[in-house]
Amino acid sequence: MTRRALSLSAYLTYARSASAAGVARDWPDRPDGALVWGFAEDTEQGRALASLAARLVAQRPEVSVWLSGSVPDRPGITTVPLPRDLSGDDLRNMRRRQPDVALWTGQALRPGLLATLSEAGCHLIALALEDAPFPVDAPRWLPDPAPATLALFNSLYTNGAAASRRVRRLGVETDRVHDATAFLDTEAPLDCPDGLHEEIAALIAGRPIWLAARLRAEEASDILYAHRQASRLAHRMLLIVSPADAEAARHISRLLRSEQMRVCDWENGDMPDENTQVLLAGGPEELGLWYRLAPLAFLGGSLISGTGGEDPFEAAALGTAILYGPNVGAHLGAYSRLVSAGAARIVRDADSLGTAVSHLVAPDQAATMAHAGWDVISSGAQLVDRVLAEVCDVLDDRGLA
């Protein structure tokens, strides 16, 4: 027995004899047929895991999916408590559920949980592994169980070559480690009617266009100021405003009237013409159309505090360059990835927004950013496709089709 195996054995002896404080976990009975259990370390990975699970259920409705950790609710997917690693009762209950496949995200390892799954015959898949240490909540007097825990996984998908080298240096077999990309929330792109898109595109062809998506009432004045500033250099520029909700729409409509701007009120059946300065659109349900028409978009909820911003991947997935304010804490990882790729840019106020719009609304500038965003989205979708194929192959091999 190797030192690594001994380190994991020592941890398991400690974990299975422990009694974690708090209320005992309560899981549903194991369903008949195939069971896939996913574990999310943080909110961003939880959204990505929930999207992957939704696609799996759509492809294989006979498969039951349980998700634990920081995951949103999704139809057809059961959310269950995250087992405690230092609880003999939780680990024994976990073993009795015997999931067929487990999807694990992030760096933080739970050796007791993962070893219990492995011993129960579960196929283990790790996602979103970074070039960073693998923390384990273990007493300092125990030998580090992380290397032996990583060796339990059947497949490990990393965020790139550097992360893969780190995993291999810890002793994981090379053929189990796969260079990949960030694990992203890859929802299907927002839809829109083809005929309507073609009609509106013909009406506004040749005009510089930008979009303010999911705009809050408190941001409207800054957006209109930025539009006036940018329009000094591009007199035919058109701003499309998609309010976040009905209350924001009423406020923005009143503001536009007070500013005496030439407005096309989409909800009242108006159509834009050469003199339109602002197209006041309907709610978020029509964003599939506006993202396709506007090469550049400001994402609302980011110039004010308290909202956390909006998911930028829905815009990037439709080839839109992205501007955003500093308050995007709920989606910080997503924005950071797009900024690193050159697909998004932060603005601090109305002045910097106007300057950015003037520069980036040019077709070549917006196209470069949009292409970078599409690369991020498409690489994430390819990873999801690979993982789904592996899950389905495992289930087929076990006769659980």
Automatic annotation (TrEMBL):
Gene Ontology cellular component terms for the protein in this record: plasma membrane
EC number annotated for this UniProt entry: 2.4.99.12
Catalytic activity: lipid IVA (E. coli) + CMP-3-deoxy-beta-D-manno-octulosonate = alpha-Kdo-(2->6)-lipid IVA (E. coli) + CMP + H(+)
Biological processes per GO annotation: lipid A biosynthetic process; lipopolysaccharide core region biosynthetic process
Membrane spanning residue stretches: none
Superkingdom in the source lineage: Bacteria
UniProt xrefs under InterPro entries: Kdotransferase
Signal peptide: 1-20
Pathway: Bacterial outer membrane biogenesis; LPS core biosynthesis
Chief subcellular location: membrane
GO MF term list: Kdo transferase activity
Record's subcellular location: Cell membrane
Entry keyword set: Cell membrane, Glycosyltransferase, Lipopolysaccharide biosynthesis, Membrane, Signal, Transferase
Protein's job: Involved in lipopolysaccharide (LPS) biosynthesis. Catalyzes the transfer of 3-deoxy-D-manno-octulosonate (Kdo) residue(s) from CMP-Kdo to lipid IV(A), the tetraacyldisaccharide-1,4'-bisphosphate precursor of lipid A.
Family (UniProt): Belongs to the glycosyltransferase group 1 family.
Protein's name according to its UniProt entry: 3-deoxy-D-manno-octulosonic acid transferase
Organism: Antarctobacter heliothermus
